[in-house]
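Changelog entry

Holo records now carry the ligand SMILES as an explicit input line rather than a separate metadata file. Below, a converted record for zinc ion, shown in the new format.
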Amino acid sequence: MPFSDFYKRTITVTRIFGIPIRCDYRWFVVFFLSVWLIAMNLARGGMWVGQVKLLPVSITAAWILGVITTIGLFLSVLGHELSHALMGRAEGIEIEEIVLHPFGGLARLRNEPESPRAEFRIAVAGPAASFLFSLISFVLMLPTMLAGYTAAGGVLLLLCAGNLLLAVFNLFPGYPLDGGRVLRAILWRRTGDMKQATRLAGMCGMLIAAILIIFGVYMVIAPSFRSYLMGFWSVLVGLFLFDAAYRQVKDVRGRVQYIVKEAMSAPFAVEPDLLISQLIDSVLPMHRQVAFPVALNQRLHGILSLEDLKTLPRERWHLTKARDVMRPIAPRFFVEPSAKLDYARELMKRNGIGSVAVVGKNGELVGFLQSGRFKRKKRSNRAAS
Ligand SMILES: [Zn+2]
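Structure line, unchanged by the conversion:
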């Protein structure tokens, strides 16, 4: 396995409200770096957070506080993303996963919001949660400090500042930041043109990213600043954002919408009266598919998923027909040849069988699609632009 792939592989840490929380290995590096940075600063003679100076503590205490604060910041990012995800779910969008990466997190939605209003709500939910966490930390901090628990107060102060930063930074109006999504929602609503709105929000994102990079370089070389770590971090975040924003802009410009007809394979159907024993003995060795359309005279009756056969005892194979175990035809099991491939992909992800039948205007079976196995026919008649 190449090194880069190892780093890209995500592991599922836990599930919250049924949403898988994943992170990749780079994230552990950042976790350690954060603990180390906070611990070193605290031990070395106090740490400035805004106008407040945290008193220096012993080295052991510094490490413990570093771990607690980092976990707190990690939970803050998670809470921010979870807020996006739950708002998305409230808007009727399924949530694929939440990924924590070195530069924060990402709530991956199964599909794009369908209206500017939904987009706006989902985008705003994250920073709103961060503002709330910041406020809670602040409210808890005051009595903690006054009671003399300065270490605990210090942790709360860092969480207050961290969450505030998370909220404010994310509201910068450029894609892929939340502010960029808000901007996109507003432009989309004003003009009704989602593509144009996406492009503009992406370009604003590229501009913000460029400013971050320039600012980062300035922090490293300017004699008055000389803040290497902050500078490098700023450059890294800038590059990361630039890449995402650029891809968004490019995506809108050059996106080719494939249709089902261009990707489907010729249908291989089994007859409703085919015995399962025959299917296993003679059909399966020849046709390695996870599901088969069940059709008679080109008319689709249902879909037979091998997954459904797992519960069927072996001794019943020669008594059971395809029609007995197939899933009867339903809208989620077929598409028209002219449907968009993206739509078919969504359907395959959600219908539980990882495939869809392609049915023509007169109800005849004309093709079959299995997820991950598309025939990409070249569009030779498409002029290059
Ligand atoms: Zn966010």
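Spot-checked after migration. Residues 274 and 321 are 5 Å apart (CA to CA). Confidence is low (pLDDT under 50) at residues 377-385.
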